[in-house]
Amino acid sequence: MVFGQPSTKNYASITNATSSSVSEFTMCLFVRMKDTNFSSGQCLYSYATTGAPFGNAFYVCLFSPGIRISIHASGDDDTDARVKINDTMWHHICVTWKNTKGDWQFYLDGQLQSSGTGLKKNHQIPAGGTVVIGQDQDKVGGGFDIEDSFGPGEVTEVNLWSRVLSGDETAAQKANCDIAQAGLVLSWGQFKGKVTGVKIVEP
């Protein structure tokens, strides 16, 4: 999925992305940035529901100086993953979260880079929301701001699971694109037919 210069007209989206509420998840994707000099946010992945403040129930965005994970409920809860992408190479990103203790993990290129606890403990992410690649949703399926738009760059192999993947499973994705099937909720193939303003390039 090839994104040009930042624009609110470039994205991929899936409505009714989850059929049940989410108490744990793993989201993974590959990303390559063509320009690492940006002063605003660049959102890779957002999931929005009608009950979430500012639209997003969950997002992963690139900010300076690091990558930020956010899970919204009654308030704004951002976590800095303390990891930065500062080159134009392909990178594999995985984020995991489980509500029992609010545990989260951030993997870059198959290696655990940071983790924490207490992120929205006992929270349930509501079902039926919309996933958007390349934009921050301030309302469900819209409310885009060019200051949060991704580009220029490429995104591929976006997948979502309803469970926390192991370190070995995330490493296998990076090494050989081995996509675990157990608990897979959204797969890359579903996004490829739901694009606006971006190009799909097949190998």
Automatic annotation (TrEMBL):
Q: How is the cofactor bound?
A: Binds 2 calcium ions per subunit.
User: Which parts of the sequence belong to the Pentraxin (PTX) domain?
Assistant: 1-203
Spell out the subunit comment.
Answer: Homopentamer. Pentaxin (or pentraxin) have a discoid arrangement of 5 non-covalently bound subunits.
Which keywords belong to this entry? Calcium, Disulfide bond, Glycoprotein, Metal-binding
Q: Which SMART domains match?
A: PTX
Q: Write down what this protein is called.
A: Pentraxin family member
Q: Which GO terms describe its cellular component?
A: extracellular region
* Cellular localisation: Secreted
Q: Which cofactor does it need?
A: Ca(2+)
- Calcium found in the keyword field: yes
Query: One Pfam family for this entry, by name?
Result: Pentaxin
Q: Which GO terms describe its molecular function?
A: metal ion binding
